[in-house]
Amino acid sequence: MEEILKNSKTSSSSSFSVLVNDQEKMNKKIDELIATLPVDSEGSVPLYQLKGCWYPFFAIRGNIAADLHFQAQDSDIFLASPPKSGTTWMKALIFSIVNRNRHPPNENPLLTTHPQNLIQYIEFRHYLNGNIPENLDQLPKPRLFATHSHYASLPHSITHSSCRIVYICRNPLDTFVSLYHFLRSSEKIQQDMDATYEKYCRGTIHFGPFWDNILGYWRASLEKQEKVLFMKYEDLKEDIVFEMKRLAKFLGFPFSVEEENEGLVEEISRLCSFENLKNLEVNRTHKPYREGGVSANAFYRKGEVGDFVNHLNPSMVENLMKITQEKFAGSGLVFKYSLDKLQNS
Ligand code: PAP
Predict the structure, then answer these.
(1) Distance 214 CA to ligand 1 centre (A)
(2) Over 50: is that where the pLDDT of 270 sits?
(3) Statement to judge: residues 31 and 120 lie in one domain
(4) In what residue span(s) does the Sulfotransferase domain sit (predicted)?
(5) Of the N and C termini of the chain, which has fewer Cβ atoms inside 10 Å?
(6) pTM listed for this prediction
């Protein structure tokens, strides 16, 4: 993709931006590139592999378009995650922390807006189907975006600017169980647990392989601490106040001593908690959270660490733990599988 980007820059007689701002030329480039990509058609939706990441059909065009067109600003904040890792929670937290002076907790738009609509995915909302968005410059600063892309396949401008990336992930067992339930409800196809499990283990799953998605951001967070903050769902569950302070500091919106003394951190944590969000009218409805989207309540299921024990048999657990151990060997990465018992991956 960067090759195309380079070629675009040199072959355009006028300018790079003229070339990539033209929707027709963009579509042509996207089509050309997609035709060269490996495809997996075994699952409920076709997946395309780009730079190691398996994109579902509804995200591949957008990712390429964003790579060719998106201009990151240094103040931008990106939330990155593998699907079903706590993204909705983090969207609520980041939005509330960054906008707390504009929107105090009792007037927070979260009370009436689904978190998924407050921070939108770059590859399948802003650049959906490869369409160039018109309104990105009008978004309030700092602009907030989300992505499920791997670090290696992020749009070029994101990795090559000083914008910040917060990454959230979760142990592979709970992530798989959450994904399985979500695919069942969102793709309205009877998903077979064994077949979905096989695909998950093979890596040919939405934005997989799961382990590569995580390792890319893990390594980037070690190399560029000011750019990438690496967070885990289980840590948030264990000590939300500590993790929120860490997050706010990284984002450049640290809580002041006065705010901490007033209990603002706890107040925002309660607003964004699973129990509170799940029960708000905007989130508990079966109606789509946006036109053509899945039910608003599909993003809230159990919100627990360790729920995998209720869904996976021992051999599935053992196998996934073994793969995880092999993939993360030497990386220093460990996950918690329940909150009272730490098991290293
Ligand atoms: P996405 O990738 O489609 O955006 P994402 O929000 O990352 O989904 O994951 C959904 C999971 O987060 C669900 O987990 P479960 O299936 O194991 O229950 C969902 O319940 C959980 N979740 C959503 N909101 C919260 C929250 N405020 N606190 C904790 N967990 C949450």
Answers:
(1) 17
(2) yes
(3) no
(4) 74-332
(5) N
(6) 0.93
Say whether both 17 and 89 belong to one domain.
no
Could you tell me if 143 and 292 lie in one domain? yes
**157 shares its domain with 71:** yes
| Partner residues linked to 169 by β-bridges | 232
Q: Do residue 234 and residue 250 come from a single domain?
A: yes
Can you tell me the mean pLDDT for 121-136?
A: 95
Q: Which residue has the tokens 């579509």?
A: 27
Q: Which amino acid is at 139?
A: L
Pair (203, 261) in one structural domain? yes
Residue 23 structural domain: 1-36
Buried b (16+ CB within 10 A) or exposed e, 138-148: eeeebbbbbbb
Number of domains composing the chain: 2
Please identify every residue annotated as catalytic: 148
Condensed to tens digits (0 to 9), the pLDDT of residues 98-114 reads: 999 999 889 999 999 99
Report the separation in Å between the CA atom of 234 and the middle of ligand 1, taken as the mean of its atom positions: 12
Task: Select from 302, 289, 303, 305 the least CA-distant residue to 115.
Answer: 289
Burial of 268-289, coded b for 16+ CB within 10 Å and e otherwise, reads: bbebbebeebbebebbeeeeeb
| Closest ligand 1 atom to 88 CA | 6
Which residue CA neighbors atom 26 of ligand 1 most closely?
A: 274
Q: Is the pLDDT of residue 7 over 70?
A: no
Token duo for residue 53: 């990441």
For 179-318, strand residue ranges (E) read 228-232
> In sequence order, what E strands does the chain have?
39-40, 47-50, 53-56, 77-80, 120-121, 144-147, 164-169, 228-232
Residue 86 belongs to domain with CATH number: 3.40.50.300
Same domain, 248 and 338: yes
Element (H, E) at 271: helix 264-271
Q: Is the CB of 277 under 6 A from ligand 1?
A: yes
Residues 210 and 98 in one domain: yes
Spatial separation of the C-alpha atoms in residues 113 and 118, rounded to whole Å: 7
